[in-house]
Design goal:
Elements (H helix, E strand, L loop, with lengths): L1 H106 L3 H56 L6
Organism: Poeciliopsis prolifica
Protein name: PPUP7764
Length: 172
Amino acid sequence: LEAEVGRVTCQLKEAMDKMVEQKEDEINRERGWTDEQQERLQAEAKSKEESLRVLHEVQTLLAQKEEEVKATQASHAAQLDLLQKELQAQMSAKEDALRLLEEQRLRFSERENSEKLLEDLSWQKEEISQQLQEEREEKLKMHVALQEEKLAFEVERNNHEQVRRVFPLEFL
């Protein structure tokens, strides 16, 4: 009987040792899995933090660009308005000058003076036409530059929209 008790005790001890070893293996596997999960969560948190930082930088830059574009548009609008007023004033002054020249031409009865005044008038008209053409070209250049800036702003805004779609706030 004592031998039987010893044998059963030995079997129980072996079974217990085996069970303890299995539990230790299971605990070690769980620890490894837990460590992996913790590392993954830390990496995800770091990635999320970096994405938020980049998004904030992009939003800040976009806001700055929007302000710059608004300021540029306001400046260009003011310059265009000023140029239009200057052009109108010049055209008015030149029209007045042309009217005066025409009146003077009519006052002179001598053919020689009339021809001279007509030559002067033609020259001034040509000069005015040339100046008007140059001013129109300058105005067109300014308009094209403004349109290009507007297009660049739209492209940048579209890029920002794509960033928002790729990194939606719920994801971050």
